[in-house]
Amino acid sequence: MSDPLLQVEDVHTYYGDSYVLQGLSMKLDPGRIVAILGRNGMGKTTLIRTVSGLTPPRRGDVRFQGRSLAGRPAYSIAQAGIALVPQGRRVYRSLTVRENLQLPTSSLARPRKGRWNLEAILNEFPQLAERIGHFGGELSGGEQQMLAVGRALMANPSLVLMDEPSEGLSPRLVLQVGEMMKRLREHGLAVLLVEQNLALAMSVADYLYVLASGRFVFEGTPEQLSREPAVLDEHLGVSRRRI
Ligand SMILES: Nc1ncnc2c1ncn2[C@@H]1O[C@H](COP(=O)(O)OP(=O)(O)O)[C@@H](O)[C@H]1O
Ligand SMILES: [Mg+2]
């Protein structure tokens, strides 16, 4: 068995006096998709910020490829191979698709080697190739999500953090986001997905955690979660019939 790619060990994260993540532990193996499900305000983005070094934990540790990330600033964590697709996508509306894609390489001190470059990304997402000269602000929500993923790939990460990629997308485009994640996994990438969208998480994740008020209240496979109506009802607000 290989070592986990990412290990979150009893992390406690605060914003000032506000105690948000109250002792979370989880792991993610290379090439897997792990989903963190939870309603608004439960701490999903805070977990992403904790892993990416934007809001480091006050207690506990995050380990990546066996090494502690403690004390490392966000740019150094990105350099190590963790890329973020932020909530709300954050594409630059007045830059073209090409310019959006070419930005992140310059934010890494040393480009990471790997299969992903402009050509490979346009090959993977032909829809972006068609829109190469368009401004970010002219793209549909689904295309913007694709662009945000492409931008993350330019850094040749081994782990992609995705913060609510389904937000604001139609059900058809949510399916497309799911397909995109499966393709990343086929390319050997690991994905940490945080979501409120149960159907999306269940359809792509190898393993899931349910987050409620800064603590995990469930972990298991999609199949195991589907057999926990009480968890689904209490923490995700869905009755079993709707899965
Ligand atoms: N910058 C911040 N300062 C203070 N509190 C914050 C900040 N960001 C988020 N919070 C609080 O932390 C909790 C978790 O937020 P968040 O991680 O954004 O949840 P989610 O992504 O699951 O919706 C919420 O109570 C939220 O109000
Ligand atoms: Mg959030």
Q: Which quaternary structure do these chains form?
A: single chain
- What Rg do the Cα atoms give? 17 Å
CATH architecture: 3-Layer(aba) Sandwich
Low-confidence stretches: none
Overall mean pLDDT stands at 93
CATH homolog superfamily: P-loop containing nucleotide triphosphate hydrolases
The helix/strand series, from N terminus to C terminus, equals: EEEHEEHEHHHHEHEHEEHH
Keywords:
alpha/beta; Rossmann fold; six-stranded mixed β-sheet; four-stranded antiparallel β-sheet; binds adenosine-5'-diphosphate; binds magnesium ion
What does this structure look like?
With 243 residues, this protein is an alpha/beta fold. It has one domain (6-242): P-loop containing nucleotide triphosphate hydrolases (Rossmann fold, 3-Layer(aba) Sandwich). The protein has 10 helices and 10 strands. The chain has helices at residues 44-52, 74-80, 97-107, 118-124, 126-130, 141-153, 171-186, 198-204, 222-226, 229-236, and strands at 6-15, 18-28, 33-37, 59-64, 67-68, 82-85, 159-163, 190-195, 207-212, 215-220. A 6-stranded mixed β-sheet has the order 6-7-8-3-9-10, with helices on both faces. The chain has a 4-stranded antiparallel β-sheet with strand order 2-1-4-5, with helices on one face. Helix 3 packs parallel to helix 6. The longest helix is centred in the C-terminal third of the chain and has 16 residues, at 171-186. The two termini are 32 Å apart. The model has no long low-confidence stretch (mean pLDDT 93). It binds adenosine-5'-diphosphate and magnesium ion (MG). The site of adenosine-5'-diphosphate has 11 residues, from strand 2 and helix 1.
